[in-house]
Write a structure and sequence with these properties.
By secondary structure, the chain is an alpha+beta fold. The protein has 2 domains: 66 residues, no CATH class; 32 residues, no CATH class. 39% of the residues lie in helices and 18% in strands. A 3-stranded antiparallel sheet has the order 1-3-2. Strand 2 and strand 3 form a beta hairpin. It is globular.
């Protein structure tokens, strides 16, 4: 029996909040080619600020076009993680060497408290 951490209503609310953030706040994308791809897909792009605001209908259309499975390869191609189609993975970001400091927004080396926090989220 699988544990259910969140209720269906909580999942729906998180999903809706995510769509709202993507549409109203957007994300910073510091890459001209990717900004162009977002614009071509129907997102609102502010090239000067490098900010992309993605309407909910664009997000859902693109999610619907995404593959049902994918593989992430490491530098050593023998190391990989496959996702989807009955594959189960337990991965964590706890091993990341660099983090963005929440208070100052600057990159820094991870500390023990960062690893502990990542483990709690995983």
């Amino acid at each position: 029996m699988l544990s259910q951490v969140l209720t269906e209503d909580q999942i729906r609310r998180i999903h809706q909040a995510s769509l709202t953030i993507l549409e109203r706040v957007g994300v910073v994308v510091p890459h001209a080619e990717v900004l162009g791809r977002f614009a071509d897909a129907g997102a609102k792009v502010d090239a000067k600020a490098q900010r992309v605001r993605i309407p909910a209908e664009v997000v859902m259309r693109l999610v619907g076009q995404a593959g049902k499975q994918f593989t992430i390869h490491g530098r050593d191609l023998a190391l990989r993680a496959s996702f989807g189609q009955g594959k189960r993975n337990y991965n964590s970001i706890a091993g990341e060497a660099l983090w963005v400091d929440e208070a100052g927004g600057k990159r820094r080396y991870a500390g023990l408290s960062d690893v502990a926090m990542a483990c709690r989220f995983a």
